[in-house]
Amino acid sequence: MNAFDHPYFVHALLAGTLIAAAAGLVGYFLVLRAQVFASDALSHVAFTGALAALALGYDLRLGLFAATIVLALVIAGLGRRGRADDVAIGSVFSWILGLGAFFLTMYTTSKGAGDGKAGVNVLFGSIFGLSASTAMVAALVAAGICLAVLAIARPLLFASLDEAVAAARGVPVRVLGIAFLVLVAACAAEATQAVGSLLLLGLFAAPAGAAQRLTDRPYVALALSVGLAVAEMWAGLAISYAAPQLPPSFAIMATATAVYAVTLIAVRPGRRIRARPLAVEV
User: Fold this and answer.
1) Residue burial 131-149, b: 16+ Cβ < 10 Å; e: rest
2) Contact call for residues 37 and 84 (beta carbons, < 8 A)
3) How far is CA 166 from CA 29, 36, 160, 162, in A?
4) Cα 69 from Cα 92, distance rounded (Å)
5) What is the Cα–Cα distance from 203 to 210, expressed in whole angstroms?
6) Dist CA 145 CA 25 (whole Å)
7) Rounded to whole angstroms, how far apart are CA atoms 206 and 24?
8) What is the four-CA torsion angle of 61, 63, 67, 68, rounded to 10 degrees?
9) Which of 61, 194, 222, 281 could connect to 127 by a Cys-Cys bridge, CB 3.0–4.6 Å?
10) What is the pTM of this model?
11) pLDDT tens, position by position, for the chain (282 residues)?
12) So what's the pLDDT on residue 113?
């Protein structure tokens, strides 16, 4: 039997491909806007939200999306022009993690110690455990995130490269910043099911970082970020299938890290694809 004869692999490939594409799109703008720390905070609040939902008897995904989106709105509200502010993030970061530990204890003591596996799945992902319906929902949500990011990509790029000029030209910089953080939150909530909240940052940052080292052209880098993220997802799933002792989350992140390390060592700034002068019209 080959990998495609196994339903669990097909489900993982379906959900993983679109989740990776969404992470590649979102990750590019996170790196460009220097908001990677915000994605780290959202990945950790995904853990807290999921455990809170389980402890209170609700669906895990409800907690994932509710917690991440609420925190994204809080971060955007505290930041300047809808941008995440590191001080604002840091002020709630430790408290959010403490809540996660509280809800994990609450869940395991109320449901039995054997249910502690749910916390492990949230932390490290369980992409090979997705059912057909869960994989389809994950794919549809990720596809919606991709479409939403592409819809705002041009003005968001303008605002990311020169916020002051974009604002002067009438670009709704604050609204774009808030909308983008909400999309990051939704992507973090969905991707947690694939790679886990602890490893999610790598799926956002590594492909986008590698893409930016390969080219200065924004749209080429955006496409490269998506392509690398999807290819790394596929490679990680294939490696984990061939070597079952390797968890898929580890294989995916190891591949992403290796690709970034290669670009870091092999690509010098002078050897990148150079950008043409960029004019962004709105």
Assistant:
1) eeeebebbbebbeebbebb
2) yes
3) 16, 22, 9, 6
4) 15
5) 11
6) 9
7) 9
8) -10
9) 194
10) 0.86
11) 688 889 999 999 999 999 999 999 999 999 998 888 888 888 888 888 888 888 888 888 888 899 899 888 888 877 665 565 666 677 677 777 778 778 877 877 765 544 556 667 777 778 898 889 989 999 999 999 999 999 999 999 999 888 888 888 888 988 998 999 999 999 998 888 778 877 788 889 999 999 999 998 999 999 999 999 999 999 999 999 999 898 998 999 999 999 999 998 887 655 555 555 454 444
12) 46
Print the SS3 string covering the chain. Answer: CCHHHCHHHHHHHHHHHHHHHHHHHHHHHHHHCCCHHHHHHHHHHHHHHHHHHHHCCCCHHHHHHHHHHHHHHHHHHHCHHHCCCHHHHHHHHHHHHHHHHHHHHHHHHHHCHHHHHHHHHHHHCCHHHCCHHHHHHHHHHHHHHHHHHHHHHHHHHHHHHCHHHHHHCCCCHHHHHHHHHHHHHHHHHHHHHHHCCCCHHHHHHHHHHHHHHHECCHHHHHHHHHHHHHHHHHHHHHHHHHCCCCCHHHHHHHHHHHHHHHHHHHCCHHHCECCCCCCCCC
**Planar angle of CA 142, 148, 150, nearest 5 degrees:** 105
Q: What CA–CA distance (Å, rounded) separates 142 from 235?
A: 19
- Whether 23 contacts 43, CB under 8 Å: no
